[in-house]
Structure formats: C-alpha cells, structure tokens
Specification:
about 180 residues, alpha/beta, Rossmann fold
C-alpha cells in the first residue's frame, strides 16, 4: 500500500495517522528549497515503492504562507508540527544544503524530539557540513532501500517491502539521476 504525504492531511487526520493501530513510519524530508524537484522525486519513491508516509512541506499551505508573509515564528511552528507528526527525518544533502538557514534548526529539533535522523547524500561530490555528520549517511539508492526496509519494520504492522522497492541495479531506476546506485 502506498504511503501518503501527511502535509496534505488536516491536523486531526495527521494525528490519527500517527497514532493509529496501523501507523506506519513517516519521514520528514528536510531540504533546501532549490532542491524541490529532487525532493518531489524522492518523496514519490518513498511513498510509492517504500510504502511509507512522508512529510513534504511543498504541500503545507501554512508554511508557504508564513514564509511569504515573512513570519519566521509561525514558520517555525509549522516546521515543528511537521517533525512532531513524523517518526524520522531525512535530510537531503546537496551542494546547496549549507545555504539553508532552516535545515540546521530542523535537524536540531528532530534530535531533541528523539526522532531518527538520516542524511541522504545526493549524486556527485557533496562535502557534508559538520552538523550533518552526526547522523547515519545514506550514499546511494542501495543504502536508501536498506533504510526504507528497516523503517518498514518500525511501524505497528510489519509489511513486506522487498517486492515494492526497486532494486538499485534496475535499468532506468527513478532515482538514477539523483543518487549514486551502489555505495
């Protein structure tokens, strides 16, 4: 069963999804806004092939409005809400990540909230800033699949994921242009 983006749910629906008996892991995707297209592809892969929920703020109308209104206090509350509705945080590390003022806050808040933190290093040579070296670093499609498989086992109901994840060696993998395939 495909996952969903909890940013699209009402507060009540999101809380029910987190607390329900069949609750599944939810990954908050931390990223720099320039990488939205990449995040969209990764979120789609996680939901469709990993069967996990994500929290991808592209669809969070509140945070978009808060950022447009230049209201950092309200934007911070929206970020915190997204992280609290998630079980894990996955930070995408690109060449532009260090330009974000929000990513260090998201990582720190997630750690202080006892959320699992992982870093997904995008294709190419990206030097990780020090604050990203505190977590598990995923360096390829293969390691992302292993990570997703482990998260599928942390929900209330364990699912078989091997059939839904695309083998990292598959020709024309949807993440070929985003991640290295085996590292």
């Amino acid at each position: 069963m495909a996952g969903r983006n909890r940013a699209l749910l009402s507060d009540q629906q999101a809380i029910a999804a987190k607390a329900g008996e069949s609750a599944r892991s939810c990954i908050y995707i931390s990223h720099f806004h320039i990488d939205k297209n990449i995040v969209r592809a990764i979120a789609k892969y996680i939901m469709e092939h990993g069967g996990l929920d994500v929290y991808f703020d592209e669809n969070d109308a509140d945070i978009e409005l808060d950022l447009l209104l230049n209201d950092p206090s309200r934007a911070t509350k929206c970020i915190e809400r997204g992280i609290l509705l998630s079980t894990h945080i996955l930070c995408l590390a690109s060449k532009d990540t260090c330009k974000s003022w929000w990513i260090p806050y998201e990582i720190g808040f997630a750690k202080s909230s006892n959320k699992g933190v992982a870093i997904l290093k995008l294709r190419g040579s990206v030097e990780l800033p020090e604050y990203l070296k505190i977590a598990t670093v995923l360096r390829s499609t293969k390691s992302l699949n292993v990570y997703l498989e482990a998260l599928r086992g942390t929900g209330a109901k364990k699912h078989t994921i091997s059939e839904s994840l695309l083998e990292h060696k598959v020709m024309n993998h949807p993440l070929d242009k985003i991640l290295d395939w085996q590292e």
